[in-house]
Amino acid sequence: MSARKSAASTTQPKAASKAQPRSGTGRSGTKKAETHLGLVRRARRMNRTLKVAFPHVYCELDFTTPLELSVATILSAQCTDVRVNQTTPAVFARYRTALDYAQADRTELEELIRPTGFYRNKTNSLIGLGQALVERFDGEVPHTLPELVTLPGFGRKTANVVLGNAFGVPGITVDTHFGRLVRRWEWTEETDPVKVEHAVGELIERKEWTDLSHRVIFHGRRVCHARNPACGVCILAKDCPSAGTGPMDKTAAAALVKGPETDHLLALAGITS
């Protein structure tokens, strides 16, 4: 996987409202609220722990250029990365430039991307993306947030994916997993993705934003499932206010862990195969 790097900067998240204080139990057994400073320290400690759990994170969409990543990210809406990666080789072979997408035959493109779902709307976005890039950016994907969010098919989520992974510009990607986990961890109570992005941006150093996004998403897919998280083998449990939502028994929890890092994650929990 290769991608161009740029020193371009992106828009800093605006100041967001502080998360509500978290209640914790002190030595006396009484409840005490978590201060904002305490929340910052806990969030950064959890990020460091996630580095141990997932030392090698990456975008799980296959791409080699900023344009390919833009297309893959648009196709990933309401679709798994696995399905997108099965679909994009044929798409990328047929459409190599922004002009190719701008001039695409709608029926042919629809058939190629049909497996990703919502293929008519996605076709509109891809053709519109190609046209906008040709007309306004000389056929190249821009590398600033204000420019990216003007493109068809782009919101802040897609823009941050492209900035962070194609251009090396830090960005927080708030997908379903990210939003769910940071609320479960009580980093924020916000539900609007932009407000979540701003709130988390206040807690975590900017240079960490892209990798943090990957770590949280990895953790949500592998360990911290929506309905039945593997709490008993989660190395974040000591800092997680929701620990115990899933089974705390290690054997039961271990059976819930998914993904290629399973052996590593279980070893961290003291379980060896």
Automatic annotation (TrEMBL):
Keywords: 4Fe-4S, DNA damage, DNA repair, DNA-binding, Endonuclease, Glycosidase, Hydrolase, Iron, Iron-sulfur, Lyase, Metal-binding, Nuclease. The lineage of its organism: Bacteria, Bacillati, Actinomycetota, Actinomycetes, Mycobacteriales. NCBIfam families: nth (TIGR01083). Residues 75-222 form the HhH-GPD domain. Belongs to the Nth/MutY family. Binds 1 [4Fe-4S] cluster. DNA repair enzyme that has both DNA N-glycosylase activity and AP-lyase activity. The DNA N-glycosylase activity releases various damaged pyrimidines from DNA by cleaving the N-glycosidic bond, leaving an AP (apurinic/apyrimidinic) site. The AP-lyase activity cleaves the phosphodiester bond 3' to the AP site by a beta-elimination, leaving a 3'-terminal unsaturated sugar and a product with a terminal 5'-phosphate. GO terms for biological process: base-excision repair, AP site formation. PANTHER family: A/G-SPECIFIC ADENINE GLYCOSYLASE/ENDONUCLEASE III (PTHR10359), ENDONUCLEASE III (PTHR10359:SF18). InterPro entries: DNA_glycosylase, Endonuclease3_FeS-loop_motif, Endouclease-III_FeS-bd_BS, HhH-GPD_domain, HhH_base_excis_C, HhH_motif, Nth. It is an enzyme of class 4 (lyase). Gene3D superfamilies: Helix-hairpin-Helix base-excision DNA repair enzymes (C-terminal), Hypothetical protein, domain 2. [4Fe-4S] cluster binds at residues 224, 231, 234, 240. Its cofactor is [4Fe-4S] cluster. Residues 7-25 have a biased composition (Polar residues). Pfam families: EndIII_4Fe-2S (PF10576), HHH (PF00633), HhH-GPD (PF00730). It catalyses: 2'-deoxyribonucleotide-(2'-deoxyribose 5'-phosphate)-2'-deoxyribonucleotide-DNA = a 3'-end 2'-deoxyribonucleotide-(2,3-dehydro-2,3-deoxyribose 5'-phosphate)-DNA + a 5'-end 5'-phospho-2'-deoxyribonucleoside-DNA + H(+). The gene is nth. This is Endonuclease III. Its EC number is 4.2.99.18. Residues 1-37 are annotated as: Disordered.
